[in-house]
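User: C-alpha cells in, sequence out, please.
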C-alpha cells in the first residue's frame, strides 16, 4: 500500500466517527486492504463476553448466533483481554491452533462459515467501560498469507484507529446527552425550535411540533419556519437574519421578538428568537444558529403535582388540592372531586397559603401557574 492509499484509509477511519453506517463502510475498505474476507468491530466488558458493533462479510444470521451463543464460548476472549492496547496479533498468538480446533467455537461457528482458523486481532481501546477491537478473518486459503503479511500495516494504522474510535465514542456520548436534553424539553411542554445557519429547522420539541402541525399562522414549509402575517415592524426573516448574522457568530446578540397573527382569530403567537454562538453548538447540533421559543397565550397553563410537592413541601393531598385549584376548579368542586368535607378543604387551603407565602385564593392560583411547576407536565 502506497502512502496515498494509506492516507485515504486513515481519512476513512476518522470520517467514520459518529456513524454506525460509516464504520461498516470503513470495515469493508479496511478488510479489503488487508486481504481479509470479513471483519468486525467488537466491544464489551473485560470480564464478560463481547458484542459486535459493526461487521462486514458475515451472514447476519451468524452474527445473531454469535450474540445468542458463541460469544459466551469464544476461546480467544482471554487472549484479547491480556493483549496490550494498540497491538495487533495473529489469532494463534492468542491461542494455539490445535487448542482452538478442539473448541465448540471452532467446530460449530468458524467451520460452518467456511473461515480458515487464521485471523488477526487489533486491540484498540480498554478502560473501566470495557474494551474494543477489530478482528479480521479469511475464507480463501490464498488470502491467508496476505492477511498475515498485513500485520505491520495494521500495527501502523492502530494509533489512528484508536483516535477515531475514541472520537466516535465521545460523539455518541454527546449525542446521547442531546437526546436526554430533548426528552427533558419535551416533558416540559415548551415550544422550542432550533434552526440551522441556513434557516432550516434542525429539530423541534414535541410541543412545537404539535403547534406547527396546526398551521394557525405558524407552520413548517420546505423545512423552514414560516409565519403567515406578523404584527409590528419586525419580521421573522429579519429576526432570524439578525440571529444568524456572521457578525454575531462568536457572541450573543440581543434577542428578537416577533408577534404572529393567527387566522383563527386567537391571540397572537409570541416568538422569542435567541442567537446561538457557533462555539456553543455541540455535536449533533453543529450548524445551529438560532433558538426560537413560541408562546401561545391561549394555551391553558398547567402545573405538575410532583414539582408542586418539591417546591412547597406539600403532602400528596395538599398537592392534589393545589393542582385542582390551579386548573380552575372551584373550592366546592375540589371538595366533591377529592371526596373531602368543606372544612377539611379550608384547612388545606390555609396550609397552602402558609407554604406558598400567599394570602388569597387568586394569589395562590397565580403563583401555582406562574412558577416552575408549569415547566413540567404530569403524564
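Assistant: Sequence out:
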Amino acid at each position: 500500500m502506497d502512502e496515498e492509499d494509506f492516507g485515504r484509509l486513515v481519512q476513512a477511519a476518522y470520517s467514520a466517527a459518529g456513524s454506525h453506517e460509516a464504520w461498516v463502510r470503513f470495515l469493508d475498505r479496511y478488510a479489503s486492504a488487508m486481504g481479509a474476507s470479513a471483519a468486525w468491530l467488537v466491544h464489551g466488558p473485560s470480564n464478560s463476553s463481547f458484542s459486535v458493533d459493526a461487521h462486514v462479510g458475515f451472514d447476519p444470521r451468524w452474527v445473531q448466533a454469535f450474540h445468542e451463543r458463541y460469544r459466551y464460548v469464544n476461546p480467544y476472549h482471554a487472549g484479547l483481554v491480556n493483549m496490550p492496547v494498540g497491538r495487533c496479533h495473529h489469532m494463534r498468538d492468542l491461542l494455539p491452533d490445535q487448542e482452538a480446533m478442539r473448541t465448540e467455537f471452532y467446530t460449530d461457528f468458524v467451520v460452518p462459515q467456511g473461515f480458515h482458523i487464521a485471523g488477526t486481532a487489533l486491540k484498540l481501546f480498554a478502560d473501566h467501560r470495557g474494551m474494543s477491537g477489530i478482528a479480521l478473518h479469511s475464507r480463501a486459503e490464498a488470502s491467508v498469507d496476505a492477511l498475515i503479511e498485513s500485520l505491520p500495516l495494521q500495527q501502523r494504522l492502530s494509533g489512528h484507529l484508536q483516535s477515531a474510535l475514541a472520537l466516535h465514542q465521545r460523539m455518541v456520548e454527546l449525542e446521547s446527552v442531546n437526546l436526554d436534553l430533548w426528552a427533558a424539553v419535551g416533558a416540559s411542554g415548551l415550544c422550542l425550535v432550533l434552526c440551522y445557519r441556513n434557516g432550516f429547522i434542525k429539530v423541534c420539541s414535541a410541543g412545537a411540533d404539535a403547534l406547527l402541525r396546526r398551521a394557525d399562522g405558524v407552520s413548517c414549509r420546505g423545512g423552514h419556519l414560516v409565519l403567515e402575517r406578523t404584527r409590528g415592524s419586525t419580521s421573522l426573516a429579519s429576526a432570524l437574519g439578525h440571529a444568524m448574522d456572521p457578525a454575531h457568530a462568536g457572541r450573543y446578540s440581543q434577542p428578537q421578538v416577533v408577534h404572529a397573527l393567527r387566522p383563527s382569530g386567537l391571540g397572537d403567537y409570541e416568538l422569542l428568537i435567541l442567537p446561538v454562538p457557533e462555539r456553543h453548538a455541540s455535536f449533533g447540533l453543529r450548524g445551529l444558529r438560532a433558538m426560537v421559543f413560541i408562546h401561545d397565550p391561549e394555551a391553558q397553563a398547567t402545573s405538575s403535582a410532583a414539582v408542586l410537592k418539591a417546591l412547597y413541601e406539600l403532602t400528596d393531598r395538599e398537592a392534589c388540592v393545589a393542582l385542582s385549584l390551579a386548573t380552575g376548579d372551584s373550592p366546592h368542586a375540589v371538595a366533591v372531586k377529592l371526596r373531602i368535607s368543606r372544612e377539611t378543604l379550608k384547612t388545606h387551603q390555609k396550609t397552602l397559603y402558609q407554604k406558598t407565602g400567599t394570602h388569597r385564593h387568586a394569589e395562590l392560583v397565580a403563583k401555582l401557574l406562574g412558577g416552575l411547576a408549569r415547566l413540567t407536565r404530569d403524564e
